[in-house]
Amino acid sequence: MAKNAIVSEELAKKFATEKDTPYRRWVANEGLDIISAHYIPDLNTVELKPWARRGGRGVYINHEASRTSNDCYVCEIPPGAELAPQRQLYEEMIYVLDGTGSCTVWNDSGHKVTFEWGKGSLFAIPLNAWHQFFNGSGQKPARFVAVTNSPGIINLYEDLDFVFNTAHDFKSRFNGEPDYFANRGEQKGLLLDTNFVADAINLPLISAKERGAGGGHIRFNLAKGSMNCHISEFPIETYKKGHAHGPGAHVIIMKGEGYSLMWPEGEEPRRYDWKEGAMIVPPNMWFHQHFNTGTTPSRYLAFKHEVVSVRNAQGVPKAWISRRLGGDQIDYADESPVVRRLFTDELAKKGLKPKMDDAYDFEQQELARQAEMVTAQ
Ligand SMILES: [Fe+2]
């Protein structure tokens, strides 16, 4: 049986007041719910409530796994409407789920920049910059999902006037550059240095075989923030390597069809089916692994916030390093036979077959190289 660490009501009651935080009280005062789940089947249809202060509708998603590091919310802007202007002393990354519109960003120095977004756009709000969203359609609502680091900030200051009403321009983050939100960027290794991607669903990626199955990868550090995000894509009839890392990753399916397995060390994998618009939030150090069972490449966006040390001494994420070397990635060669069998069975239902031989072969060469390195040390 899965262990979920649930204890008696009596013990839980002793900690009940500690579960309440300034952040949770703030969301409640906004009139919104917090969905405490690490799997949302469809962000496009998740239920929203009127958000009087902002002028749209919204819901917060804040699983215990990321409760004090970062959070997530979904917001809908009604047809022909706009959200209220806002500034905030926390960072926010945004992915547009549906619709079209524009956003105006400005600071106290009087610099103002406006850019247009549509379904698949990816960007971030510069720290403490004023911003206002407009729906570009008079007929259709627009919906976006955002990940912020507000829980830590609101819990730290416990002063909403300070968090939302401090007059200070962080000029190194945003200084009114007219091309700040231009749809272009400079590639630096795996990192694309940009503040705006107009169509992240079709953005060309870079080959990254280290994560398995010939997938493409690209990383972002939007609006010079401390949070980061990345996109991964993997071809039909393939799956990625399982890995684990700290809390706070919000994995949003941009296209494709498949499922993910997630499990805490030593337990049986649990299955979460997905398609475009689904989101999974792997809890702290749970292994997770993504499988493409559809007929198109699958692509996801992961919004992240590194709150615990998850890199080695060279700065490489441990989720990219084999467990054989002390990292947190499970090599295909070491995965449970159940994982491979389930994938084969799922594909067979659609008349498909795993196309993993190249990935397995590439890994065998890597493992041989690693073994030589370890012997030479
Ligand atoms: Fe991950």
TL;DR of this structure?
This protein is α+β, with helices and mostly antiparallel strands and 377 residues long. The protein is built from seven helices and 25 strands. The strands form five sheets. Strands 2, 12, 13, 15, 16, 17, 19, 22 and 24 form a nine-stranded mixed sheet that branches. Strands 1, 3, 4, 5, 6, 9, 11 and 14 form an eight-stranded mixed sheet that branches. It has a three-stranded antiparallel sheet with strand order 8-7-10, with no helix packed on it.
What does this protein look like?
- The protein has 377 residues and is of the alpha+beta class.
- The chain folds into 2 domains: 9-164, Jelly Rolls, CATH 2.60.120.10; 186-376, Jelly Rolls, CATH 2.60.120.
- Helices cover 17% and strands 31% of the residues.
- It contains 7 helices and 25 strands.
- It has helices at 9-14, 16-19, 22-29, 150-157, 160-164, 337-348, 357-376, and strands at 34-35, 39-40, 49-51, 56-61, 71-77, 92-98, 100-106, 112-118, 122-125, 130-135, 142-148, 186-188, 191-193, 196-197, 206-207, 216-220, 228-234, 242-243, 250-255, 257-263, 270-275, 279-280, 287-292, 298-304, 329-330.
- Helix 3 crosses helix 4.
- Bound molecules: fe (ii) ion.
- Fe (ii) ion (FE2) is lined by residues 243, 245, 249, 282, 288, 319.
